[in-house]
Amino acid sequence: MLEDDFNDCISKAIRGHGCPIVSLAKLAGIPERSITDCLQGNENPSAIRSIAPHLQLSAERLLNLKNYRPHTPIVPGLTQVTSPFGHLGVNAYVITSGDLNLIFDTGTDASDLQLLAPDAQHVFITHEHPDHVAELNSFTTAEIHRPAQLQHGDQMRIADLSIHILDVAGHASPAFAYLIKGLEKDVCIVGDAIFAGSIGGCPSTSAYTTALSNIRNHILRLPGDTILCPGHGPMTTVTQELAHNPFFAS
């Protein structure tokens, strides 16, 4: 199940473009009611095809989201841990390499993380929204890496793993993704920057522009088989998002 349906994507794009429904209706040449119906989850293919170009979305990808089920291979050493938040929960991740345990975000309940990685040496935070940092106090012996301490392009070497810091500000600022090399496949912990079939909502038009640019330049240019690990919803890959995400059809 995806984090967002077609109407969530449309809502995020409307907010990101700062385009009132009345203005969008005039641009698309359709009644306002057709747009509000879509935003309420009533799929109207004709209306979606009319408004999508004005929001720089792919209409066909919006209409196909209901069938999109990303497939990601099992990567030894990578574990997704979901704790309660919203309708799908919030994801944290454990990366294990030998005796090394790294945690990425904490979710809202650290009990499973503590079972998987009771001696975690490092905790990395993608962004400071409460659902991602709620359990930081549960990891008092770990070194905490927070966004305010990082810069795009930073690199760390921890045992057999290399970690590359990528700017993904937009949904939140500062916000960073962590590209981890050293497992069987490259893994990128992306926080709420990009989801399978969607992106994280942005608080302003400028943040939306920044988010799209950072995702295109720092995430979607990674090798196609890179595993993307979002803060909500299922894991995906660069190739699958380039093929299915309605925000990145061009």
TrEMBL record:
Domain of life: Bacteria
Cofactor(s) the protein needs: Zn(2+)
UniProt keyword terms in alphabetical order: Hydrolase, Metal-binding, Zinc
Domain Metallo-beta-lactamase: 89-232
Entry keyword annotation includes Transferase: no
GO molecular function terms attached to this record: hydrolase activity; metal ion binding
Parts of the chain that traverse the membrane: none
The keyword Zinc appears for this protein: yes
The protein's name: Glyoxylase, beta-lactamase superfamily II
Originating species: Rubritalea squalenifaciens DSM 18772
